[in-house]
Design goal:
Blueprint lengths: L9 H54 L7 H10 L5 E6 L4 E4 L13 H4 L2 H5 L5 E3 L11 E10 L2 E11 L5 H44 L1 H4 L12 H63 L5 H32 L7 E4 H11 L1 H7 L1 E6 L6 E4 L1 H18 L4 E10 L2 E8 L6 H4 L17 H11 L3 E6 L6 E7 L4 E2 L2
Parallel strand pairs: 7-9
Antiparallel strand pairs: 1-2, 1-5, 3-4, 4-5, 6-8, 8-13, 9-10, 10-12, 11-12
């Protein structure tokens, strides 16, 4: 499926991951910070409102002329549920007249407060007095005491003392720290998971390539599974497989060169030996002809036996000469002298030579494609050798009779000639080697026929292929020649 996202390399992926984590961290930090600020502002406004209301009740009680509800201050402070908040009303002599803490009623202001404040500050304070908790004994460090004088027309009526614990104000900060810690751990876990997944996706293919490279000797030139990716890993695996393919082709070329060198040396040796053998064979053949002409016995019976033996000797000499000729062709480059020739007539001539043999073995001949143009610009003698080899192999494959079919066809600018038989066929493992020199599955022959045929056909720009028939009976040899050599009649 085609991806709609652009291909990202490893560098880009790492940058995107880091930017994403950084953005996530900054976003979470900003979100938590803004939330904390809003919580602090809301808490502060709420506390200030509560304190203002408590001070208002205290001042009203201190300045009231008639009877008032003494429990109003305590009930209000209790309803706030604020830990550590105490509001006390003291007289001008620093005696507590009422308090949200009933135990302080009748007592003096905080015991150490008088020691810390001067009498003048108590009588005529000009401003709100804030007493640090360290000055007042064992109070919480987060506790602050406010002493508010209440004056009416320069007459000091008393004081309102507020003892406030600001630990509640720190609650949003503690929640902020906890939230930041949890978010930090979550982002770290997410980053760790993504980093592990990214590393795993990149490390596995690299290990596969490294393992394949380290085990070339043991496993051979085997490619690694293709990583269908568009990043560095995909490029690495494709480059590695390309390298393996090039090494394979180089090794195959090297093996082919070594094989050709061996065959060339063997061909030179065979050609030299064949050349040395050919001349004595010619002299022996001439000597047999002289024996037949001059020294044949006169009695008919002896003469017939003598001539029969000479025929046998001549046949063996001819077979030996053909064998020597094959060696000579193997050791020499093939030279062709093309001229326009009707290949169908050429094949008919080859079949005519084998007609008696085919009839004796009960082989039926079928020809197809008689109307196909079959004039080629080829070397007739060389191609005759090829067709003789193929027809001879087909006849040898059907000693108990069968059918040989010769078919002509044309298409895509090529002339295709097919020889198929109903013989024993060829072992599947031997099919790939039938065109190699000196390879044969028969007792007779030296395995050069198909090798030379292939060389001749390729010299004409054609191809030759040998396979077993699809139905498993017999073999099929296919010649194919390019259009450049075909001439329409």
């Amino acid at each position: 499926m085609e991806s709609y996202f652009p291909a990202l390399n490893l560098k880009a992926k790492l940058i995107v991951l880091m930017v994403a984590l950084l953005g996530l961290t900054l976003g979470a930090e900003l979100w938590v910070s803004l939330g904390t600020q809003e919580a602090i502002v809301a808490t502060t406004q709420e506390k200030v409102k509560d304190l203002a209301r408590a001070i208002q009740i205290s001042v009203q009680e201190l300045t009231a002329v008639g009877n008032i509800d003494r429990d109003r201050l305590r009930d209000y402070v209790s309803s706030l549920h604020t830990r550590g908040l105490e509001v006390s009303i003291a007289s001008s002599q620093a005696l507590i007249l009422n308090s949200s803490n009933p135990h302080l009623i009748g007592a003096a202001l905080h015991p150490k407060q008088a020691e810390w404040l001067s009498p003048e500050q108590l009588k005529h304070p000009d401003e709100l007095v804030t007493i640090p908790p360290s000055k007042l004994g064992p109070l919480s460090p987060q506790t602050t005491v406010y002493l508010i004088p209440v004056e009416v027309e320069d007459h000091l009526l008393g004081y309102v003392q507020v003892v406030a614990n600001f630990g509640d104000f720190a609650q949003p900060l503690r929640e902020n720290r906890s939230r930041q810690l949890m978010i930090g751990l979550a982002i770290f876990t997410i980053g760790l998971v993504f980093a592990y997944i990214l590393a795993d996706r990149y490390v596995k293919p690299i290990h596969a390539v490294a393992d394949a490279a380290q085990n070339f000797a043991a496993r051979g030139l085997e490619p690694v599974p293709e990583a269908h990716r568009r990043d560095e890993i995909g490029l690495l695996t494709r480059s590695f497989n390309d390298m393996v393919g090039q090494l394979r082709r180089a090794r195959e070329r090297e093996q082919e060169l070594n094989r050709l060198e061996r065959f060339t040396a063997l061909g030179q040796l065979a050609g030299g030996l064949a050349h040395e053998i050919k001349n004595p064979l010619n002299f022996i053949s001439l000597a047999l002809d002289q024996l037949r002409a001059r020294y044949a016995p006169q009695p008919p019976k002896d003469r017939e036996a003598f001539l029969r033996q000479l025929v046998i000797m001549k046949d063996e000499l001819r077979r030996l000469s053909e064998l020597v000729q094959s060696f000579l062709h193997y050791g020499r480059p093939i030279e062709i002298h093309p001229s326009p020739i009707d290949v169908r007539q050429l094949i008919d001539g080859v079949v005519a030579l084998s007609d008696s043999k085919m009839k004796s073995q009960g082989i039926e001949l079928i020809e197809e494609g008689r109307d196909v143009a079959a004039v080629l610009n080829v070397d007739a003698e060389k191609l005759r050798t090829c067709f003789i080899n193929v027809v001879a192999n087909a006849i040898q494959a059907m000693p108990d009779g069968g059918t040989m079919c010769i078919a002509f066809a044309s298409g895509d600018g090529r002339l295709v000639i097919t020889f198929s038989d109903t013989g024993a066929g060829i072992e599947p493992g031997a099919v790939d080697h039938v065109f190699e020199p000196f390879f044969t599955t028969k007792r007779e022959g030296i395995g050069l026929g198909l090798f030379l045929s292939k060389a001749i056909v390729e010299r004409h720009g054609g191809t030759i292929d040998l396979t077993n028939n699809p139905d498993g009976v017999g073999t099929k040899v296919t010649f194919s020649f390019p259009a450049i050599t075909v001439h329409n009649q």
